[in-house]
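FAQ
Q: What does a multi-component entry look like?
A: The components come first, one per line:
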Amino acid sequence: MSGAFTKSMARNIFYGGTVFFFLLFLALSFDTHSQLPKRDMRQNITPQIAEGKKLWETHNCIGCHTLMGEGAYFAPELGNVVARYGEEGTKAFIKSRPKEGIEGRRSMPQFNFTDAQLDAIVAFLKHVNSINDANWPPNVQG
Amino acid sequence: MQYKSQAVAKPYFIAAIALFVAQILFGLVLGLQYVIGDFLFPAIPFNVARMVHTNSLIVWLLMGFMGGAYYIIPEEAETELASPKLALAMFWIFLVAAGLTVVGYLTVPYATLAEMTGNNILETMGREFLEQPLPTKLGIVVVALAFLFNITLTVLKGKKTSISIVLLLGLWGLAVFFLFSFYNPANVVLDKFFWWWTVHLWVEGVWELILGAFLAFVLIKTTGVDREVIEKWLYVIVTLTLITGIIGTGHHYYWIGTPEYWQWWGSIFSALEPIPFFAMTVFAFNMVNRRRREHPNKAAVLWALGTGVMAFLGAGIWGFLHTLAPVNYYTHGTQITAAHGHMSFYGAYVMVNLTIISYAMPILRGRAANSNRSQVLEMWSFWLMTVAIVFITLFLTAAGILQVWLQRASDTPLPFMVAQEKIALFYWMREWTGVAFLVGLLVYVASFFVGGKEETA
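Then the predicted structure of the entire assembly, as tokens:
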């Protein structure tokens, strides 16, 4: 790190390298966006699914669960929960959470969702399950 | 203190440490909830405690970055801060906003909080780490802009050193990439894609510029090594950071609906991400070995060396452990991720903040370094917290390997909760190690209140 290699050379490599790799990242991102419509099933997103996503967010589900592997690791993956429990099973589970929790066990809050809200949440989770995510998770347990 | 406006850093550092304590207390709550599931339920459910844990971390690191910048920039630019009053006003706005946000999390159901704070106007809440209500997010933008305006003006009217330039680039990048937190489309794949532009490009991108600049500044001051040498290293390190880290974002694009080619781009570039951290370690040890003076603040030098080593282990090694796509297929979203998260945040960003605080705080309190007694205590806290985080990471890694084995790799995969119960022993060990971390942190806080004969330069 001495002799011929000077600070101004290091600085120039820093600026050049950063700009180059950022542009490369942008190019890859553009390409991704041209491919996404075939993978993210956006044509199926109904107002009900959008409502489900909003409920997912405003009840901070990601604070305990993962969705396509991202989130907290306290409770099961939900990106494929519809495949695991079915639509009715998923709704029944959310509906039946005891208000005071289950003694000694990790407990999910009782959110008092209406039937329409439950339908929206499950529609959203079903949509997530339909996204082409390179066959993740490895099995139905998530 | 060479410039009296540097004093604005002090309240930032004090608030940072206070929030650090809050972060750890809530961490212990979370750790306990992992094994006693209904602990504090339904008063403080896991997701609420987790928001407090992660958001207070983010806010105190930002407080540390701002405090550090307010301390470093005048000294580097060789001029007083453009507006110390603005810096103090922003401190109070930031602190009050953070405080109100935490009170909101703890007292109101999250859905009600969203309703109350205008989430219907612009839906940004309920995404990991970006849970803050809209007014808080806007507050962060205002505080960040006023802060950037202040320090940029200071640099423009003064001397422009490489440390200042790298620091400014890092801080501007921080502000710019935060703007993606306002983008939340109904299409969950796009939502996740750009969520990472804030989260990844912060912690594996521009934050590392801030880290490098802080480290370089403290090393110049404590070792007396020629600025030209240190700044050359700084450029090399941040170059390596960005040429690996930007495309390295791809390691988050394996399983969220994005094209498969990211498995190649992400694996290759993120596998190179340990290199800048390794360079940082070599850099820190090299500079300290070549020191031209004996700085009385031994504790600050210890934190600086620790930052290099622990960032390399936590971000570098533990990141590499699960970054290759075929491995990540099995480890994605398990306790392996949690293990990496804990050691990398501690090793890189907690430690670099404690480095600048350790160096600057005695000077802000009117002495070159704390008394020997105080420094010994501080170094005890260094070892307690660092060893504790190493064991927290090891226990979580063990839990993660078992989780992957039981739930993902097995011929007869177990349901999530069944697997969790089988690995509870490791969660108990993590929780006790967390208590050791808290003891270390309390020793750290105590070191500020220990007197004795002060060291002179």
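Q: Is there any commentary attached?
A: Sometimes. For this entry: The mean pLDDT of chain A is 97.
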